[in-house]
Amino acid sequence: MIVARKSREVIELRKKMSGTVGFVPTMGALHEGHLSLIRKAGEENDNVIVSIFVNPTQFLPGEDLEKYPRKEDADIKICEMAGVDLLYMPGADDMYEKDELRISSPALRGYILEGARRPGHFDGVLQVVMKLLNLSCADRAYFGKKDTQQLIHVRQMVRNYFMKTEIVACETVRDRDGLALSSRNVYLSREERKRALSIPRALERAGKLIMNGEMRVSVIEKEMRLVLEKEVDLLEYIAVVDRYFVPISEVRPNDTVILMAVKVGKTRLIDNMWV
Ligand code: PAF
């Protein structure tokens, strides 16, 4: 595995790769969720490129940029063992210059749900993902469904800018207790983690209701709230939307996503279920 710190190294090394390239962008502190993306990229492509970059432009003032878990040595070992061919670990100076061109998330969908709570977050995500897709010239790039709104925006960027990379959506990986894997789970105390399990329980409750034929969003939302409200410290939102992120009042199988964001202690957690 080659570890590159500079974008020009990536450009040169990429030119020498033959066959298809699968790309997995990450912010490091790799866990089984990232590994599942890397494995899928390896199964479907001749070469795998991974990036690790804690991207400052997607953090808002007061968010956890400084505190965000960084585990460089462990991450390099994990990538090596997972069969990654090229690991790109740039510094912010390699990625950005002063007074950069900007990419904006869509004016409506970019500013609802996560975009409403974190205005500008998706602009930063799209800016860095555009750079990384251009650098890797990937045939396919792998994104987790855990960050569904991010996935939807990246797909739109690829569509709107006629980019050639296929965006592959991958299932959320969960711990045995059901909590979706996230680098931010390390912030949870043991007691908070117990309470955070109300998140998968609420999604499970929604799933059961739908299986039993309950399609009314108002009923499903109310039941989810009952599961969550006693356990979490702040219920930011529960949203039920179609694949274009338009709120709906009746669940439509194969065209519905149920999303939520909560705070447990100081930790903000998101999760969702595609119906
Ligand atoms: O999902 C993430 O880890 C980040 O948002 C991404 C896609 C690596 C961009 O910084």
Which descriptors would you attach to this protein?
alpha/beta, six-stranded parallel beta sheet, three-stranded antiparallel beta sheet, 10 helices, globular, binds pantoate
Walk me through this protein's architecture.
This protein is α/β, with parallel strands linked by helices and 275 residues long. Helix content is 38%, strand content 19%. The strands form two sheets. It has a six-stranded parallel β-sheet with strand order 1-4-3-2-5-6, with helices on both faces. The protein is globular. The N and C termini lie far apart (39 Å). The mean pLDDT is 97. The protein binds pantoate. Residues 25-27, 55, 58, 125, 128-129, 147, 150 line the site of pantoate.
Oligomer: single chain
Overall strand count: 9
Q: How much helicity do the residues have?
A: 25-40%
Alpha-carbon Rg, integer: 19 Å
What low-confidence regions span 5 or more consecutive residues with pLDDT below 50? none
Structure annotation, total helices:
10
Roughly what fraction of the amino acids lie in strands? Answer: 15-25%
Summary, kept brief:
38% of the residues lie in helices and 19% in strands. The protein has helices at 7-16, 32-44, 72-81, 92-95, 114-117, 121-136, 148-160, 190-196, 198-211, 217-229, and strands at residues 2-4, 21-26, 47-52, 86-88, 140-144, 166-170, 234-241, 257-264, 267-274.
